[in-house]
Amino acid sequence: MYKDEEGNDSNQYLTDVGRIDILAQDSKTNSFVVIELKKGMESDKVVGQTLRYMGWVKENLALNNEEVKGLIICKGTDAKL
After folding, report:
1. Which residues, including other chains, have CB under 8 Å from residue 44's CB and lie 6 or more apart?
2. Does residue 31 carry a pLDDT above 90?
3. Helix (H) or strand (E) segment spanning residue 23
4. How far apart are CA 13 and CA 23, in angstroms?
5. DSSP-derived 3-state class of residue 3
């Protein structure tokens, strides 16, 4: 889980561009992982939202050029995803 400046853990992370469901950080590589939990949302919108969050993390949190990854978790399968 990502810890903010004060060392607090958070499942949801509020940004200027929306609320990230889960923001994690890989303890081995320091890569950030934006995790979006979805049910019933159109795939194009989910991908766009996730990319927007990833861009925000890259610009605002990945200050040492850490990699930013995205993960979408959904209930059903979607061939477009």
Report:
1. 80
2. yes
3. strand 22-25
4. 6
5. strand
b vs e for 3-36, b when ≥16 Cβ sit within 10 Å of the residue's Cβ? eeeeeeeeeebeeeeeebbbbbbeeeeeebbbbb
Position 3 scores a pLDDT of 60
Distance CA 32, CA 70 (A): 8
Task: Indicate the SS3 state at residue 21.
Answer: coil
Helix ranges, the chain (H): 43-60
pLDDT at 12: 80
CB 50 within 8 A of CB 15: no
The reply to whether the predicted model has a pTM over 0.85 is no
- 52-79 pLDDT, tens digit per residue, is 999 999 999 999 999 999 999 988 777 7
Asked whether the beta carbons of 25 and 1 are under 8 A apart, the reply is yes
